[in-house]
Amino acid sequence: MVVESSNDALSDKSSGANENSLRKKVGMLVRVTRRMINYCARVWLSSRKTDAFFFQELKLSFQKELENEQLPEFSRILMRLNVSVLSPRIHNVIIPRSTYKVLPNDTVEMRMRGGSVQLQGFYRAVYRTIREGELAANLSSFAINLKFKISTTFAGKLLLENVVCDAEVRVVDVQLVPKLHDLVDEGLRTAFDEHTSVSHIINRAFCICAIFLQYKDIMEHLLIDTTISYGISLMEDYFDFPLVGTPTISKMNTTSLHPLVVCSLSSDFHDVPYLQKLPEDKSKMVYIYITEFVLNSFLKKLDTFGNTALLLSAVPEFDGLLQLNCSENLECMGDFLQDAEPYQFDSGTMLLKMRSPAVATLRDGFMLLDLNLKVTVSYVQDGVDVNVLEFDWLLTVRINNAFLNEHLVSKVLFF
């Protein structure tokens, strides 16, 4: 994740031109690098159970879409036999290996080689008598060239359009049970090659009307508005998707997704759709560029979930400070209270609450987080909590790149 600041990215409230209206809505940009795309392709092709859950589910959905495809029935006259292929259906799909190339006009060309499709059905052969049986066919060694344009709808959803597929099946194997004749098998191989339109099947599978992107955070209530607010940018080494990025609240129970990201703080966030590519972009998988406005919007939404409180007395250093019997080498609350005897020993608690939402300021290489806090110290007296000290605390926390990256890497979850 790359965090970039822009104090005025969303501050322009004038009506302005339509392009400026779009630009001011860009609060976040997701950059997917070639390494991430190659990783997705590798997981897509793999069948190991240890692979990422999200991509395995996507792969299974794609395979199920193909496996539900029922192919047209057909007949052939072979060796005087009127052979009919009945109810042919796709039974199993092995996804071919793929590579991609970025073309002008936001167009991507994919080349897929290998893979296989297994078909199952029935046959009926008629000549004086009727013979029936089961049919199995295996279509393999695909050569598929798929071209599509990545664009967006008026509602800001991702759209794949102008899908064109040119496909060739290089190996077709047909088996009949019970077997008729080798020449019948050969004739059916030719018929399958003619009547089984792989291009048509692939086109149907890839003709997605709209893809709705929605990131669910670990709190299962806070959603990020992933409406695409500006034209996407497709490059050889990365794809850029500018998003509105503002957080919203939802009551839906959702499953968390955790992308593999890296974080870097910078203030060179001027023209979102045309960000200068960072030198290390090739080595990471996903970058998330975010404006200061969106980050503070997130903190404000976070504050609406309820009172944010931290029990500082659970920290050993603070627990020692709350002791009533102080040692000679360490000061504690017992030194400051006028009369500590009424309070129960080891009952001290220190509670920290947010008085207002945190405010973040992004700088080159670090972030300043301003916190408006209220601290309450209490003890138990006669079975009741009694507040003995309350004060306000204005705290500024500096978070730099190294600290953020260290904690992000340790929190990354693999599916």
Automatic annotation (TrEMBL):
<dbReference type="GO" id="GO:0005615">
    <property type="term" value="C:extracellular space"/>
</dbReference>
<protein>
    <submittedName>
        <fullName>BPI2 domain-containing protein</fullName>
    </submittedName>
</protein>
<dbReference type="InterPro" id="IPR017943">
    <property type="entry name" value="Bactericidal_perm-incr_a/b_dom"/>
</dbReference>
<dbReference type="InterPro" id="IPR032942">
    <property type="entry name" value="BPI/LBP/Plunc"/>
</dbReference>
<dbReference type="GO" id="GO:0008289">
    <property type="term" value="F:lipid binding"/>
</dbReference>
